[in-house]
Amino acid sequence: MSLEAVFSRSKQWPSAKFTNFDKSVTVILMGLIAQSFAIRQLILLGFDTSARIILRSVAEYSKLLVALLQDPLLADEFAKTDVPEKAKKFWENFPKKNIEEKLRASWLKFFGHANRDDANWGFNWGGAHEDWFGISSSITHPSVFGAVSAAIPLSTKYSDENWSGIWGDKAEVSVWTIYASVVYMFPLCLFNHGFPFEGFDNHMGSIIRFDKSSEHHRHVKYGRDILSTLILSIKDNEDFFPEIDLSIFNQEPAPKSC
Length: 258
Prior knowledge:
Layout: H1 3-8, H2 20-45, H3 48-70, H4 75-78, H5 84-93, H6 96-111, H7 116-127, H8 130-140, H9 144-151, H10 174-190, H11 215-235
């Protein structure tokens, strides 16, 4: 089913009022919401390894949305990716490095080109979590580590309980999964602060004006600031990140005492 057909079948969203920008942003946000709920549910059930696999997708969709808000005309091409062949062509013409360039441009625009050091700090702070995906990569693709981490979740302390993580076992390492997820969403709260109420009139088919009597509008306008503050407060809270016990993976025999 094409993207046009999806919107035309909805009585709430008549397609005649929606541009490619509207459609692209809407479906990306839907994907992000669904993936975020999936990550939350998997973590609550004790499947952090599976949650981190989805985290890769959250990061990619978040970066793509930043790129679209930086360059709204990109939506005309993205809207065509409703079938596999066109999606492949889109990513061949618009590789990952282009998204990174637009993300960096967004940081420079926010801080101002005179504050290039601050912009680089922000860009590198988000990108630093790619190291966490170094672990996720070995989980996404078959590896010994990926399989073992699913059976033995990383914890601060291991008990003698005979229970395998493959049946679901909550682990403290999930705090990194949650933090990495919200860090990739942070630019969406920081950049284009007026979106969707201002700044994109030339690209939106149905202009949305802020209505302070609407609870949904208030959540969008003010909730992003609260969420941004929460993310930054977690970053500076060392107690939020527990020390993981890696001794269980140590294959070398413990040194004998004298």
